[in-house]
Amino acid sequence: MTDPAQTLLKLTHETKAVSIWNRQTGPVFWYAASVPGPFYVNTELVIGPELAETLLNKITAIVGGTTDAAQRAAQLNAAILAAYDANPAYRQVIAAMTAAAKAAFPAGSYDVVSGGERRDWLFSIPFARECGARHLFLFKDQSFYCEQGIKAGETALHVADLINNAASYFDLWLPILQKADVACAGTVCLNSRGTNGLERLAAAKVKVVALNSIDLGFFAKSRDSGLIDAGTYAELESYFAAPKLWAAKYLMQDAALFDVARTDAKSFTRLQSFFTNDPWGLRPNHATFFAAMDEAIAARAGTAAKKAG
User: Fold this and answer.
1) What is the dihedral of CA 300, 27, 286, 247, to 10 degrees?
2) DSSP string of 52-112?
3) Burial of residue 182, with CB atoms counted within 10 A of its CB: 0-12 exposed, 13-18 middle, 19 or more buried
4) Domains, the chain, with CATH or none
5) Taking burial as the number of CB atoms within 10 A of a residue's CB, which of 113, 119, 166, 302 is the most buried?
6) CA-CA distance, 250 to 257, in Å (whole number)?
């Protein structure tokens, strides 16, 4: 019998839902805090990169082009469930999520399944159908809609793709549920990254079930399953132990790993901030390398300015 956890682990790597950089050729990943890292999490890709892109484009078009709530919900359900029914890997992902939920949240402990705009819906809509529950759409404009209606005092299980710092929960999803007079029984997500968001939710008494915690343990399982090699694991181990020492060992020798001239605009902004502000205090011991990076950054910025002019 196939192990659902092992299947999900393999899918996560095969679809690049968790991507690991190539330390020989680069480029490195950039995080929102304007610091580099050796891996990146795009949870929605686990259903298949092309399918995820197609569905997210459809979701954007539907939300932007349909103002009637009932029509919008019907279109979203139709697009996502048609893709779900046609894709075995997609169904495997949802099966793993529903199995985890059934183990953690007893029958009758929630009335509806909620999901937030946009990526949550890839998981919450089929999850709700598999659990025989109503689906409650939560929108970024702080509105909500449930086709079958909701009653004051009911309870929702929130289904999400990723918990990082949990900002969307505290800025949007929990306040919208409160506005709807719906309690939160907890949340189920595919991936969690770091502990900040989990700690914030725990402090708010929101129970969290994450199928994968993208931490060193996740990468150890990946190594043991032959999905990454020992050298990659050793690098990730050094990153989790001390990002500054990881950067000094793996990044401060080859400017090509940053691909300054061709990196996308968002990554370039983060790269520029990192080398300007030096948050990890690397410049004193790597002055020559920083000078070379300063020059490459100035050349990229200058080229952009000329094009804008």
Assistant:
1) 140
2) HHHHHHHHHHHHHH---HHHHHHHHHHHHHHHHHH-HHHHHHHHHHHHHHHHHS-TTS-SE
3) buried
4) 4-41+218-308 (no CATH), 45-214 (3.40.50.2020)
5) 113
6) 9
- Residue 36: beta bridge partners? 30
Does position 228 have pLDDT exceeding 50, yes or no?
yes
Residue 43 CA to residue 164 CA, distance in Å, equals 11
Output the pTM of the full model.
0.93
Q: pLDDT tens digits for 156-165?
A: 999 999 999 9
Which residues are CB-neighbours of 102 under 8 A, at least 6 positions away? none
Judge whether residue 29 has pLDDT over 80.
yes
Residues 8 and 116: their CA atoms lie apart, in Å, by: 23
Read off the pLDDT of residues 115-150 as tens digits, 9 standing for 90 and up: 999 999 999 999 999 999 999 999 999 999 999 999
Return phi, psi of residue 22, to 5°.
-90, 110
The pLDDT tens digits for 179-222 are: 999 999 999 999 999 999 999 999 999 999 999 999 999 999 99
Closest CA to 138 of 100, 112, 166, 108: 112
How are beta strands 134-138 and 144-146 bridged, if at all?
Answer: antiparallel
- Which is more confident, 258 or 302? 258
Residue carrying structure tokens 């000329």: 306
Residue 307 confidence (pLDDT): 65
Secondary structure of residue 174 in the 3-state scheme: helix
What is d(CA 66, CA 64) in angstroms, rounded to the nearest whole number? 6
